[in-house]
Amino acid sequence: MDSTTELELVEALREGDEAAFAELVDRYHGSLVRVARLYVRDGATAEEVAQETWLAVLGGIDRFEARSSVKTWLFRILTNRAKTRGEREARSIPFSAMSDGHGPAAEAEEQPELTPGTWRSWEGDPEERLLAGEARELILATIETLPPAQRATITLRDIEGMSAEDVCNVLEVSDTNQRVLLHRARSTVRRALERYLGETENS
């Protein structure tokens, strides 16, 4: 979605255009539920948080000043509500209290060469595609075991495809912390994937 399209979409929402709202929901609802699930106890609660977010969007669109993208604004609302709900359930740690993003900046300088494209698919014969599906399941399972801050960062960057700047805005962390969190998360996932691929080759 380019900036012109975003501005047009915002104007349409302000005018009560139901089609514009439906387009926004179609585009982002699944992602909102997945991200909310990082903070709350179950899928039903994540769905509730996503629905609350859409209500907040409808109620707040007139106050949207386009200082960030619509997507960033949307996920910022979602994460704030999800964190509040998660803390109330005593299910998650407040993001501001997490300390695993305060390591040295140098740790994040060398990123593992494991990109979203590598994770999502391998082209090839049916056996390779089956391997790709199994590896993806392993990646997602490994992400679930990460500390909350790392899990949120890698989910937004590598699954939802958000930019580093947008992730910093959504999670309210510095660029340095974002890079460290992403480096640690990707390193853990890469190690798990390498172990899996090694076992597959030796079997």
Question: Can you tell me about this structure?
Answer:
This protein is mainly α. It has two domains: 90 residues, Rna Polymerase Sigma Factor, Chain: A (Orthogonal Bundle); 107 residues, Arc Repressor Mutant, subunit A. 69% of the residues lie in helices and 0% in strands. It contains nine helices and no strands. The radius of gyration is 18 Å and the shape is elongated. The chain starts with a helix and ends with a helix. The relative contact order is 0.12.
Measured as a percent range, the helix fraction is 55-70%
Poorly predicted regions: 101-125
Largest sheet, in brief, is: none
- Reading the helices and strands in chain order gives HHHHHHHHH
Tally the helices: 9
- Please tally the β strands and state the result: 0
What is the count of distinct domains?
Answer: 2
Q: Please identify the top-level CATH class of the largest domain.
A: Mainly Alpha
> Which topology of the largest domain does CATH recognise?
Arc Repressor Mutant, subunit A
- Helix/strand structural class: mainly alpha
Strand content: under 5%
What Rg do the Cα atoms give?
Answer: 18 Å
CATH homology-level superfamily of the largest domain? Winged helix-like DNA-binding domain superfamily/Winged helix DNA-binding domain
Shape: elongated
- Mean pLDDT equals 79
Q: At CATH's second level, what is the architecture of the largest domain?
A: Orthogonal Bundle
Report, as a whole number of angstroms, the end-to-end distance: 45 Å
